[in-house]
Design goal:
321 residues, alpha/beta, Rossmann fold, 9-stranded mixed β-sheet, binds adenosine-5'-triphosphate, binds magnesium ion
Length: 321
């Protein structure tokens, strides 16, 4: 049977949910199916999960960047470790501020000492999650360059994602504070350079937020499993996303035991169906899909496409019987 998950996509499709529910696998399966459905469409699968699991899903080494994933000329992949990326940036800020203050003469010694410490502290106190946003700046650059029709984004587990979506205000005010301190030294060349970097960072954050909150360009696909706990977590996630104006339009319930199997499977499936019915009740305005539990790990093209084939629309209760 053909699968029922629409093979159309916005500029950005985000797969998100709790840890281990099958986000990376789902993002990889969707990207692969989309790439094969239309060879004219150039796609990128992008992961900010430092666990680097795209390689596991595709069954081939991805590294930082790979063109032509799994033999598909129109599918590229990119993996960024935002923590490492940002650590490098912080290291640069540290040496800039040192250089800046070492070069200062004239101003009051006390004031310089105070400002130097304040800036050092600011670098140490960068808000958590600013790294993810900054790394996502790469995405908006790629879209501007028109290199890809769509970017499929595999995210790190939920808490993280929400934090970075909540973060822009904190990040921007952090940047503003930094800038205020720098402004005092605007005659120093180094300070001007640092200020320019900060302006670029704040622009990039604003562009990413604009992109993620634009329903015309971005779509969030939630991934969950058919268990009560996951249902509650997904309700919370959907609420948080609503507040952030990145609504969850589609939800994939992953890991339904196939019907007509052993009696243990049958009773497990019955419990899963009840949870799915509850998902249906709680997510009336979301398009719901389910994916089957595979009897093996999902690695490589064949397994990914086999997985994607099982993504069915969740029917109303009456139709399910
Ligand atoms: N429908 C499925 N049937 C069988 N195995 C699955 C299914 N979906 C995912 N898996 C397996 O479950 C494991 C976890 O999946 P995956 O890495 O996609 O989860 P994740 O949500 O990305 O995890 P993390 O939060 O750690 O990034 C993988 O080994 C994957 O092959
Ligand atoms: Mg993952």
């Amino acid at each position: 049977m053909e699968n029922e998950f629409p093979l159309i996509s916005k500029q950005i499709v985000i797969f998100g949910g709790k840890g281990g529910v099958g986000k990376t696998t789902a993002a990889a399966a969707f990207a692969l199916a989309l790439a094969r459905a239309d060879r004219e469409k150039k796609l990128l699968i992008f992961s900010t999960d430092p666990a680097h699991s795209l390689s596991d899903s595709f069954g081939e080494e991805i590294g930082r960047e790979k063109n032509g994933v799994a033999g598909n000329a129109n599918l590229d992949a990119m993996e960024i470790d935002p923590g490492q990326w940002f650590e490098d940036l912080k290291q640069r800020y540290r040496s800039w501020t040192d250089e800046l203050f070492d070069s200062l003469t004239g101003a009051s010694r006390m004031e310089i000492k105070f400002d130097r410490e304040a800036m050092r502290e600011l670098v140490e106190l960068t808000p958590p999650g600013i790294d993810e946003i900054a790394a996502l700046g790469v995405i908006s650059d790629l879209l501007d360059e028109d290199r890809y029709h769509s970017i499929i984004l595999d995210t790190a587990p939920t808490g993280h994602l929400i934090r970075f979506l909540e973060l822009p205000r904190v990040a921007l005010s952090w940047i503003r504070t930094f800038m205020k301190l720098l402004l005092k030294y605007q005659n120093v060349v180094k300070a001007t350079q640092v200020a320019e970097e900060l302006v670029a960072l704040s622009k990039s954050i604003k562009r990413v937020v604009a992109l993620l909150t634009d329903a015309e360009r971005c779509e969030f696909v939630g991934v969950a499993i058919p268990e009560r706990m996951s249902l509650e977590e997904t309700v919370d996630l959907a609420k948080a996303l609503d507040n952030l104006e990145v609504p969850m339009k589609k939800l994939l319930i992953n890991g339904l035991v196939p019907k007509n199997e052993c009696s243990f499977c049958k009773s497990r499936r019955k419990m899963q169906d009840e949870v799915v019915a509850n998902f249906k009740r709680r997510f009336r305005s979301v398009e719901l899909f389910s994916a089957q539990q595979q009897p093996h790990e999902i690695t490589g093209v064949k397994a990914l496409l086999g997985h994607f084939q099982t993504w069915d629309r969740v029917q109303s209760r009456a139709k399910q019987r």
